[in-house]
Every structure is written in C-alpha cells, then in structure tokens.
Amino acid sequence: MKRWSLITATLALSIGAAGTAQAQTYPAKPVRMIAPSSAGGPVDVICRAVMQGVEKTLGQSIVIDNRAGAAGLIGTELVAKAPPDGYTLLFGFSGPLAIVPNLNPATPYDPLTDLVSMGGVATAPYVLLVHPSVPAKNVKQLVALAKSRPGKMNYASGGNGTGIHMAGELFNLAADVRIVHVPYKGAAPATTALMSGEVDMMFNGLPGAISHIKSGKVRALAVGGATRSPLMPDTPTIAESGLDFKTGGWYGVLAPKGTPRAIVDRVNQALGRALNTAEMKARLTDLAVEPAHSSPEAFAKLIADEKALWARVIKQAGIKVK
What pLDDT, on the 0 to 100 scale, is given for residue 2? Predict the structure, then answer.
C-alpha cells in the first residue's frame, strides 16, 4: 500500500512538473482562437479587437478562426474536443455557453465541465428599443401599454434562441405582459424591421444599436444590465423601473478541460494587461463595448449563473426550438 501511495504521489508530481514546464514555454507557436460566429459579426469584431492587444502581451500570434453555425454550437464543440494544450481556445459568449445547452438536448458538450474558463473579457449591454411611433417614453409606460394591448404588440429578435430573443422573453416574464416574438435571420434585419415600423420593439446589443439611437431612427428606453452603461449614462436600467431584469451580452476566453492551470493563468494575465491599456479601452469604447476582465473563477460563475437563468426562462416561457 505504501509503495502504491509513493508511486501515485510521484506520478502526480511528475504531471504537475510537466504542466509547469509547458506553461513556462507557452506559447511557443501561434494560438488558434475559435470565434463561433461569422466574420464581421459583433462577436468576431470584438474578438479581433481584443486579441490584437493580447498578441502583444502574450508575445505570440493569435489566429482568429471563424466557425459559425448552430448558434455557436459548432465552434464551441470544436474547442471542447480539442487537445488541452492551450493552442486551441474559444472566444465564448452567452449563446453557445448558456442558452443553446438549455434549448438543444443533443448539445454535444457541457459548458460547465467540458470547458475551462480563462477569464472574462468584455460586456455589451442590451438596450430596449422602440419604434419612435410607440407612445411610451419609459419602461413603466411601455408595460402599461403592453397590458392594455395583450398579444397585439410585438418584438423582433435575431432568431429563435438568440440572446436578444431570450431578453424579450425575460421581459415578458418580469413585466407580466404578452408581447409577441417575431424572429428574423439576424440582429441586422431585425433592427431594419424595427426602424421601418414592422415591429414595435426589440432588445439589441448596444454596439449594433447606438448609431440608430443617435440618428433618432429608434428610441432607447432602458439598458438591461445591473448598472447604467457609461456609454449612455442618462439611460436608466430596466431594474430601475422595479422589474427583476438583469441581462446583457458578455464575452470571455475558454479552453478544453484538462488545460494546465499555469496556462490558464498565463492567458488570464495577458488578457488583463491588454484590457488595461488606454488603447484597448478606447478601441472597445468605439465598439460600444465595456472592458470586463475577470478571474477564471468569476467568469465560470457567470456562465453557471446565466445558464441557470435561461433554463428558468425557457421553462417558464415554454420555449421550444426545433
């Protein structure tokens, strides 16, 4: 028994030493960052902006590999099944990490066990938008209007199961209203529909909405986060109207399970240094995104909390995506 314990301890030390040695030379070659979205979309643009800064702090090239499809499932699965050596990473967001696993029973990965959080990167607040013709200037007025027209008002989204679809369903539950969902093939056509008056309202990420707000083509009533956005400080949160509502877009980096902790820490430190530069802060502000560096543990908790939130919303709203 003593001999077996000695062998086990020796093996553990050897594995730990190997992991430490690997981390000391990491990265020795270019790192592939999977962006599970199409090129040019919000996820891709934010990913590329952040990784340009991380390249400098990590001291190695980062190659962005767009793997769109199935609301982010395809790219996320690729990383979950990749070797845990730190050379295939994921630029993750709420869709494939917190929403898709609740909607699709056949999701081929568990975001909480098959991936390792390396840290949060940024947030992009959701903003509640209405067409200028809608006679509501704040959330309380909108709720009153929706209650006076049950089932007659509608909201657009970028498709079934997207984050802005889920935000709309959360609003229905929080306000106890029945606003009808109208899915479009992407947030851009949904925004066009709102501006033309085809729909009454929608939630959208601030990056895709801010120019239309400034032009007056849509009216912003509130933001969906826990606090007001510094990019729109005069716009209240939905929670300020008394509703139990807190959600928004968020982004972070993950790796396959089994990735050595030393490599996780190395990437997290590189993220922190990159996000703390004046150049990066200005770049993200231009994109209407807020830097939000966090520890691996804090980002893992965010994913778990959001996954639980959307499980509840999907169940209560009876959402099913074929």
Answer: 52
The reported pLDDT for the residue numbered 320 is 78
Contact 131, 218 (CB under 8 A): yes
CATH architecture of the domain formed by 125-241:
3-Layer(aba) Sandwich (3.40)
Question: CA nearest 231: which of 251, 211, 247?
Answer: 211
- Residue (of 101, 35, 103, 116) closest to 69 by Cα position: 35
Please give the pLDDT value at position 42: 86
User: Any idea which fold 28-124+249-317 has?
Assistant: D-Maltodextrin-Binding Protein; domain 2 (3.40.190)
Those residues with Cβ within 8 angstroms of residue 312's Cβ, 6 or more apart along the chain or in another chain: none
User: Using CB atoms within 10 A of its CB, is residue 202 exposed (0-12), middle (13-18) or buried (19+)?
Assistant: buried
**Res 31: pLDDT:** 98
Residue 136, helix vs strand vs coil:
coil
Whether residue 219 has pLDDT greater than 70 = yes
Please state the pTM of the whole predicted model.
Answer: 0.87
* Three-class secondary structure of residue 224 per DSSP: coil
Beta bridge partners of 56: none
Q: Is 122's pLDDT higher than 90? A: yes
d(Cα 319, Cα 188) in Å, to the nearest integer? 23
Question: What is the signed CA dihedral for 186, 188, 292, 113, rounded to 10 degrees?
Answer: 0
Is 70 exceeded by the pLDDT of residue 184?
A: yes
Query: At 26, which amino acid appears?
Result: Y
